[in-house]
Amino acid sequence: MYLALLRVAFQRQLAYRTANLAGLATNIFFGALRAYVIIALYNARRLETVAGYSLPMAITYTGLTQALASFLALFVWWDLIRSIRSGEVASDLSRPCDFFWYWGAQDAGRALGQLILRGLPIMILYALVYRITLPPTVWHWLALGVSMWLALLVSFGWRFLISLPAFWIQDAVGVGRLGLPLMTFLSGFLMPLAFFPAWAVTLIRLTPFPSMVTAPVEIYLGLVNGPALLGTLAMQALWVVILYGVSQLVLSAGVRKLVIQGG
């Protein structure tokens, strides 16, 4: 069932060609803008490295984060909220499957489509225009594949969780508009967490957000190695479990509150 849901969601992404092209163009524009800001910063201050990031690594970072933005749905995801508001959630809850993974499978199909249609083209263009870096070892390549899908699960767990207030309030999009910017800023999308003050990094790493963007980016760039590499993957997996558990508790309370057509 979950594979069928994933396949249908993936095919749905392929159907919106114009939207995908427009999204890709937007990502490329902002990626180029961010890359040239980084280049200007390094050149103006004649910097070789900043917090362990060389200029090629910093440029690669902008490409990676732009490629991951649509894959992780960092900016918008109201699907579950709309389902609850419309009452469609009643039929979803009656299906013989885990409600969390029912939506998770669809999100995985969406993410796969975004990765192929937007993520990979962005990195190819970056490789053609800039001098980017590549993962240093085969182990980093393998860990990157695992980390990206764990990052997706962490991102989905957070998006699922901040959508559940729709069971209680009329317009939960407002909650989402608060929750999604936290992902964008604290995940390391706007700038590497290594650029933040040390005390801020310590606090941010106590949240699930670094597991969404910073973890796969640091693995790609080879900034974590050996035991730290396994520790990064383990931390991502831990946040998947935590967010799933919290979501189940909140979902159970929400379902008890749910009333559809007086039922």
Would you write up a description of this structure?
There is one protein chain. With 263 residues, this protein is mostly helical. It has one domain. It is 71% helix and 2% strand. It is built from eleven helices and two strands. Strands 1-2 form a two-stranded antiparallel sheet. Strand 1 (49-50) and strand 2 (53-54) form a beta hairpin. Helix 6 (99-129) crosses helix 7 (138-163) and helix 7 (138-163) runs parallel beside helix 11 (227-257). It is globular, with a radius of gyration of 19 Å.
Features:
263 residues, mainly alpha, two-stranded antiparallel ribbon
Distance between the termini: 27 Å
Please tell me how large the radius of gyration is: 19 Å
Using DSSP, what is the number of strands? Answer: 2
Instruction: Bin the strand percentage.
Output: under 5%
Identify low-pLDDT runs: none
Specify the helix fraction band. Answer: over 70%
Q: What would the average pLDDT be, to the nearest integer?
A: 90
Order of helices and strands: HHEEHHHHHHHHH
Described by strand count, sense and barrel closure, the largest sheet is: 2 strands, antiparallel
Q: Can you list the strand order of the major beta sheet?
A: 1-2
Number of helices: 11
Instruction: State the shape.
Output: globular
Please give the domain count: 1
* Class of secondary structure makeup: mainly alpha
Question: How would you briefly describe this protein structure?
Answer:
Helix content is 71%, strand content 2%.
